[in-house]
Amino acid sequence: MADWVSILYYGLFVTVISFQLWFRGLSKVDASAAGVFMGVVPVSSLILGYFILKEPFYLSYLAGAVFVILGISFIYKSHKYESKK
C-alpha cells in the first residue's frame, strides 16, 4: 500500500503540478526567454544534485555548464544589442 501512495504522490505532485507551474510560467514570457530558461534546467539540476543529493561532480559537467552559461550570456547580449537599435 505504501508503494502505491508513493507512486501517486510522485505522479500527482512531483510531475503534474511541477510541469503545470513550469508551463504556466513559460506562457508569461516570450519565446526567446523561454528558450533561455530551457537551457538553465540542466545546469540547475547539476547544482542541486551536487549539493542536495551529493551526486558526483566531474570536470566534463563543469565544462558543459560553462558552455550553457556562455551561450545564455551571448543570447542575452545579442538580444540587448538588437533592442537598442
Provide structural commentary.
There is one protein chain. The chain has three helices and no strands. It is mainly alpha-helical and 85 residues long. The chain has one domain (2-84). Helix 2 runs antiparallel to helix 3 (59-84). The N and C termini lie far apart (62 Å). The relative contact order is 0.08. The mean pLDDT is 86.
Number of helices: 3
In total, the number of domains comes to 1
Tally of extended strands?
0
Tell me the β content.
under 5%
The rounded distance between the terminal residues' Cα atoms is: 62 Å
Which segments are poorly predicted (pLDDT under 50) over 5 or more consecutive residues? none
Shape: flat
List the helices and strands in order: HHH
